[in-house]
Design brief:
The protein is of the alpha/beta class. It folds into 2 domains: about 5-175 and about 360-375, Rossmann fold; about 185-360, 3-Layer(aba) Sandwich (Rossmann fold). It is built from 14 helices and 13 strands. A 7-stranded parallel β-sheet has the order 3-2-1-4-5-6-7, with helices on both faces. Helix 1 (about 20-35) links the parallel strand 1 and strand 2 (about 40-45).
Length: about 375
């Protein structure tokens, strides 16, 4: 019987961002696809699996709790020890981290590398993050049998920056939760959520980690310029804080827009739904991405999206979002004004966006991963 081990530790986190949600949805879809299979699947975790993750489709699926009291190095020591003692036939790691110590050769290792932005733009990351991710990537290059990445753009980046052969890299697109992000999302009662965050006017939305690589400074500058023609407008930054948050707060004060810029902190899934569905424009003019799930989420809610004129943004948006130079806040402001004031353009973006998102599903993502596992 084929034994498949999956690192479920990221999927089990309470506060999920992109990588954690990816891990969660892929595992849940694999459960459906393998519910009638005789394959043995072990979900490795550092604490009991929560909610749906802990519900197994049949007796061949097992939760494998690998206790490790220290806060750090679970992957590097505890997971590695389990792999060394009881090696699976296949190890699937949905996040960009594998044990540095040798994994038994009998185990086929599949690792998701979502992007290598830390290598392309190291100044956008903390030095320790750059070192750790770079060291991890070198280990992945030498040990992974297959590197799974999330866009053709990321594949080209991995090939160029780490000299990995194209044959070793498989592209599998991500998706989004279609039950939570769709046209009906607009029908969710919004008053309580908007009141909680003191949103009282039409607003632009950025949803994600509030950090420099997301281009938060130029978003604020573009907003300040946009308000000259649209005084009844707010800008909402929704998400946990990261590298550069303090710099953004200082800039907002310097631009004298603090009364109309809202920082929500981490938002729940329901709050994210309400914000996506009620924003006038979703801003995704980030400096570097491997994919960009928020683009699809907003399109699915019928919200027009402003993206960066980068290859990966255009690849995922499929030509149905408005691109702008992310380094030029004046150009960004021009595009925002156009999207706010041209109703025909807005309706065109909405309808084309709703059609575009039909090309993506987590089931399709999981099916592609299964092909790689069984190949």
């Amino acid at each position: 019987m084929l034994k498949i081990g999956i690192d479920a530790s990221r999927a089990n986190k309470d506060q999920k961002t992109g990588t954690e949600w990816y891990s969660y949805y892929v595992i849940e879809e694999l459960k459906k696809l393998l519910q009638n299979s005789d394959k043995k699947v072990l979900l490795y975790t550092n604490e009991p699996l929560k909610s749906n993750l802990g519900k197994m489709p049949n007796s061949n699926w097992q939760e494998k709790i690998l206790n490790w009291p220290p806060k750090y190095l679970w992957t590097q020591i505890r997971l590695w020890w389990e792999l060394f003692k009881n090696p699976p036939d296949v190890l699937f790691v949905p996040a960009h981290t594998i044990p540095f110590l040798p994994i038994p050769k009998k185990t086929k290792v599949l690792v998701n590398v979502h992007d290598v932005g830390f290598k392309r733009f190291p100044k956008l990351y903390k030095p320790i993050q750059v070192w750790y991710h770079d060291f991890t990537m070198k280990k992945i290059k030498s040990r992974a049998d297959v590197i799974i990445t999330i866009s053709e753009f990321s594949k080209r980046e991995i090939m160029e920056l780490y000299q990995v052969n194209a044959e070793k890299i498989k592209v599998v697109y991500l998706s989004f939760d279609k039950e939570k992000y769709n046209e009906q999302t607009r029908e969710i009662p919004k008053d309580e959520v908007l009141a909680k965050f003191k949103i009282t006017k039409p607003f632009l939305l950025f949803l994600g980690r509030i950090e420099i690589k997301k281009n938060i400074l130029n978003m604020a500058k573009a907003f300040a310029l946009t308000k000259e023609n649209n005084p009844d407008l707010q800008l909402v930054f929704a998400g946990s804080t990261g590298n550069g948050y303090e710099e953004l707060q200082s800039l907002v004060k310097d631009l004298k827009i603090e009364d109309d810029v809202i920082f929500t902190g981490y938002v729940t899934e329901k709050e994210a739904q309400v914000l996506n569905a009620n924003a006038s424009i979703f801003l995704f003019t980030t400096l570097y991405e491997g994919f960009g799930i928020p683009i699809l989420q907003s399109m699915a809610c019928g919200t027009p999206v402003l993206i960066s004129d980068l290859d990966v943004h255009n690849e995922i948006a499929g030509g149905v979002a408005i691109p702008a130079d992310p380094y030029n806040s004046e150009k960004m402001a021009e595009k925002i004004n156009q999207m706010l004031n041209d109703e025909n353009l807005r309706q065109e973006l909405i309808q084309k966006g709703l059609a575009r998102v039909k090309d993506f599903s987590w089931e399709r993502t999981a099916q592609e991963i299964l092909k790689i596992i069984f190949n």
